[in-house]
Each structure stands twice: as C-alpha cells, then as structure tokens.
Amino acid sequence: MPGLIDRYRARLPVGPATPIISLGEGSTPLLAAPRLSELLGVDLHLKLEGANPTGSFKDRGMTLALSKAAEDGARTVICASTGNTSASAAAYAARAGIRCVVVVPGGKVALGKLAQAQAAGAVVCAIDGSFDDGLRLVLELCERHPITLVNNLNPYRLEGQKTAAFEIVEELGVPDWLALPVGNAGNITAYHRGFREAVAAGDAAQCPRLLGCQAAGAAAMVRGVDIGDPETIATAIRIGAPIRRDEAVRAARESEGAFVAAADEEILEWYGRVSVLEGVFCEPSSATSLAGLARARADGTVEEGARVVCVLTGHGLKDPETATAHSAPTLRSPATLAALERIALG
Fold first, then answer.
1. Cα Rg of the chain (Å, integer)
2. Which of 103, 119, 157, 286 yields a CA-CA distance of 20 to 30 A from 45?
C-alpha cells in the first residue's frame, strides 16, 4: 500500500523534486468498538494509529519532515522527545540515510520507545531534565548549527499528521466528536487543519467537535498555565509547556470543543478496558482519549448517542513495563495434564 504522501500528494507541500522517505505509513484501521460504545453510551470508533510502521501516529508527520529534510540536503536531524518522536525520527532518518540525534528526559521514556531509537542507529542523549528542557536545548542548537529540527515546530510534521482526518472522513464521514490525547498540542492542531481542509474540498459538510484529553498531572491546556514539573503514567504526554498551545486553543474554540483532564487511575482503568473489551492493546497515553471521553460523558459535555472517534496514538508494546505491572500475573504450573486442567477449567 502506498504511503500517505503518495496517497495525498495533491494536498501536501511536495513537488516533483521531493524524495519520498516512506515506510508505508497511514491507512490505519478505524475500528468500531461495540462493547465500549455500550459502556459509554455513544457510537464509538477507534482510530488505531499504533498500526503505523514504528507504532505511533508520529510517522505521519515524520515521513513528510524527513522527505523535506532530504530535499533540502540536511545532514543531521534532531528532536527532543518523550519517546514516540525519537523512535519515528530515528527510523525515518535511517531510511533517508541522514544522521539523527534524539534528546530524551533521563529515566522518563518507556523502554519500547527508547529501544526503537537505539536500534535504528540514532545518537540518543538522556538529559538530567524534562522534555521541556530538552526542547529548549535543541532549539538553541538548531539556531547555532545547520541541523534540522523535526519536532512538531517543524511545519511539515503537522502537514503529514492532518492526513488522519482525511482517512476518517473517507471511511466514516464526519463524527460528532473526535477525542485525542494532548501533550505538546500538535496533533489536535493537525486534525483541526485536516478536517477544515476536508470541508473546504467538499469531502465533508462540517468539522467534528474536538475533545483534547490530558493527564491531570500534565494538564497545562486544562489549567491554562504551564506546569513546571509534569508527572503522569502517560509518559508520551508528560509535557508541561505545550508548544502549540495557542493553535490548540483555537482549534478547540473553533470546533466548539473542549479540553478535559483525567487522573492516572482513570487512564489505567480505560487502558485495561480497551484491551479486555475490544482486544486493542494501546499505550497508556492513548487511553487518555478514552478516560477523557468518559469524563466528558459524565459531565454532559459529550451527548448520549454521539458518534465519537477516539484516537489511540500508540501501540501497547511501546510500554511493556506498564502492561505487565498492571495485568494479572502469569500462572506457573507443573507440566501435567491434571495441573493444566485445574487452571483451564477454573
């Protein structure tokens, strides 16, 4: 299947001279979730962005960012990351033959994500500081040296990420609500852009309302102020100073949407439910969209019977430690039929 640049070339800032750096990203499943729909009182669909090549939605933006970097003759790209961006940047840089440097907060990145960046040959630097510290440092570095930034301040990142909205409209039409996790606030901005372009092109008659879902310990959008020391089990959105804050606020306002925060306990609850009830294994940060939707249903923000798409941004294998820590332990048994019967028959 072609990657998203080939699929949506006419809607993206690429030309005949742009080398396409692709791993076959995009075209991810949109899965009806009947058991969760009944539980939440809505018509729920799950956009499974963990089906992208490196296991997260970041690949949508990275294919375009690295294609344009290659077109510009970049020799090195760099990013600060809570994990998924580093994995994606490393993979696409490897595909392009470009050196990649990733800066992560020491001890704050899930093992599955860190391993991906290392395996792809990136230079991985863990700093004694937060993601926000890392982003500040890489921005200063890019000002001093000819290094291409591939964080979501890179305009091509959002251009690639907006294509998920096109896919939803093509397959489902326009939902009443789109719920998604919010950390640095680039993805909610990109979806808003994508839905607006779909409307302008005549592919849709309206835009959905956007529900930006944050972890309570990193809810800068909900609180309206930056958070100096964000903390949450949802490591991918453990960001205290969203770089796309103003655009995200505008996206929520123009769509008549809202921001909501969920506690870590709620995030873990829905992280478990989506796997047990629908067979979908996502990383904890992804489940923030479901926890936020549950909050919005409880307070009446999202109406009963609404058609809702929840974006699950990353695959569960990104964070195997959380999965094992919050699941039933593996049973041990003698290698006998009698012992196995006792287990299998309850």
1. 20
2. 157
Name the token pair of 194.
């994508």
Q: Give the residue among 158, 212, 164 at the shortest CA–CA distance from 190.
A: 158
Q: Residue holding tokens 């991985």? A: 124
* pLDDT band of 112, cuts 50, 70, 90: confident
Say what the pLDDT of residue 114 is.
Answer: 87
Asked if 63 and 22 touch (Cβ cutoff 8 Å), the reply is yes
CA angle centred on 149, ends 320 and 218, rounded to 5°: 50
pLDDT beyond 90 at 111 = no
| CATH architecture designation of domain 58-154 | 3-Layer(aba) Sandwich (3.40)
Average pLDDT (149-175) is 97
* pLDDT value for 82: 86
Asked whether the beta carbons of 191 and 162 are under 8 A apart, the reply is: yes
Question: In this structure, are strands 99-105 and 76-80 parallel, antiparallel, or unpaired?
Answer: parallel
The three-state DSSP-derived secondary structure of 108-123 is: CCCHHHHHHHHHCCCE
Question: Cα–Cα distance between 339 and 269 in angstroms, integer?
Answer: 32
pLDDT at position 108, please?
Answer: 81
Q: What does each C-alpha distance from 54 to 38, 58, 127, 280, 341 come to in angstroms?
A: 32, 8, 23, 17, 39
**Of 313, 262, 264, the residue nearest 113 (C-alpha):** 313
Average pLDDT of the chain, as a whole number: 96
Q: Does residue 1 register a pLDDT over 80?
A: no
Domain extents in the chain: 4-56+156-325, 58-154
40: number of Cβ within 10 Å: 23
State how far the Cα of 78 lies from the Cα of 92, in Å rounded to an integer.
12
Average pLDDT of the segment spanning 45-72: 98
The rounded distance, in Å, linking the Cα atoms of 145 and 83 is 24
Shared fold status for 4-56+156-325 and 58-154: yes
**Which pLDDT score is estimated for 107?**
83
Instruction: Identify the architecture of domain 4-56+156-325 in CATH.
Output: 3-Layer(aba) Sandwich (3.40)
Query: What's the pLDDT at 284?
Result: 96
Identity of the residue numbered 330: T
pTM: 0.95
Measure CA of the first residue to CA of the last residue in the chain; give whole Å.
45
